[in-house]
Write a structure and sequence with these properties.
There is one protein chain. With 210 residues, the protein is an alpha/beta fold. The chain has one domain: Glycerol-3-phosphate (1)-acyltransferase (3-Layer(aba) Sandwich). It has seven helices and seven strands; from the N terminus they run ααββαβαβαβαββα. It has a seven-stranded mixed beta sheet, sandwiched between helices. The longest helix has 25 residues. The relative contact order is 0.20.
């Protein structure tokens, strides 16, 4: 049921949503055919929506468990390939679900910052959760950095009505677990996390320049 609904929506309504924001995708060739994690910057509720609508293959998003407090939203998310995660603690059920999907060759979408982040620091990214690198090393799958630009202007702070800016989404060069073989697991997770965030920042900057 979920697969059929996803396919139907991606062939119909998704094109309307992508068209409304004149969404452009770049670097699609960087998304591998097998299991992989799509890890992007997160500034708007639109980020997972547009990525879900336009990714080259269906994406299973890891979303905060609080969204399931609403029966309607929880009902919809489950049928649109999302699964819950408890933030701020190791969630073994969510990790197991993600591992199973990755082992089956699916795409799993995660925002390493854990929540929307609008800060304007050196790279404009928040502190990363190390769960992405941990899962990638555990499952042996690449992490595709995703840079998203334009969604912050869709509903800026204080705005009462949504806007429809042009959005660009760029897939960067994958970060592969085999690149991190030195040191213990903790050290490898830290190094891979740092590299993932650096590549997300570069992909986002290229999306901004497009």
């Amino acid at each position: 049921m979920s697969a059929l609904l996803t396919r139907a929506l991606r062939l119909t309504l998704a094109h309307v949503v992508l068209g409304a924001y004149r969404t452009r995708f770049a670097g699609v060739e960087n998304v591998p055919p097998g299991g992989a994690i799509l890890a992007g910057n997160h500034v708007s509720y639109l980020d997972p929506v547009l990525l879900w609508c336009g990714a080259p293959r269906p994406v299973h998003f890891m979303a905060k468990v609080e969204l399931w407090d609403s029966r309607f939203i929880g009902f919809a998310l489950k049928r649109l390939l999302a699964f819950p995660v408890r933030r701020g603690m190791p969630d073994r059920v969510a990790l197991s679900t993600a591992a199973s999907l990755l082992d089956s060759g699916e795409l799993v979408g995660i925002f390493p910052e854990g929540t929307r982040h609008r800060a304007h620091g050196a790279d404009g990214l928040g502190e990363a959760n190390e769960g992405v690198a941990f899962m990638a090393l555990r499952s042996g799958v690449p992490v595709v950095p995703v840079g998203i630009h334009g969604t912050a202007e869709a509903l800026p702070p204080g705005a009462r009505v949504p806007r429809f800016p042009r959005v660009t989404i760029r897939y960067g060069v994958p970060v592969r677990p085999e690149e991190f073989t030195d040191g213990g697991r903790k050290e490898r997770v830290e190094l891979m996390t740092r590299e993932i965030m650096e590549r997300i920042a570069r992909a986002r900057d290229r999306a901004r320049e497009a």
